[in-house]
């Protein structure tokens, strides 16, 4: 009989009870819920950083292309009906001396970037287009330049474009000085 009792105890101790399983699953669920917030926050931060760098490099490319091709370039919304929420496109505007600009619309699209749908990214641009003259200078009328804001969640990056047309990325959370605020910011 003693042998049967040991065998029965060994069989019972091999598995887990329903109560133990529920407790472990509850702990795993709580840890997963706590991790989701930080994962989404990091995802938003990385998306904002990436898009700010892509916008700054597109603006630099627009300036360099205008200088080297001696043609007017512009960074404008991808879909004019949706505005900047659709992303942006770098186009070379045709001139009478621009060879190879034979597109149906007369514009040559060099770069086209769409904004992601998840996470939601807001792009705030104070003007309709950013354009560069054939010598590479910005065609902005603002004396102080302009600022494009890229934000998602609690993360923000400013792409400051000076009056010459050079972009610079600024993190307003890390750099609270006056040169890291929007040009239309009133102190």
Structure write-up:
By secondary structure, the chain is an alpha+beta fold. The chain has one domain (36-180): minor pseudopilin epsh domain (minor pseudopilin epsh fold, 3-Layer(bab) Sandwich). 34% of the residues lie in helices and 25% in strands. It is built from two helices and eight strands. The protein has helices at residues 2-13, 18-69, and strands spanning 73-79, 83-92, 108-113, 122-124, 130-132, 146-152, 155-161, 167-170. A four-stranded antiparallel sheet has the order 3-2-1-5, covered by helices on one side. Strands 4-6-7-8 form a four-stranded antiparallel sheet, with helices on one face. A hairpin with a 2-residue loop joins β6 (146-152) and β7. It is elongated, with a radius of gyration of 28 Å. The mean pLDDT is 84.
Rg to the nearest angstrom? 28 Å
* Total domain units: 1
Task: Determine the number of helices (DSSP H or I, runs of at least 4 residues).
Answer: 2
Shape estimate = elongated
The major sheet is characterized as:
4 strands, antiparallel
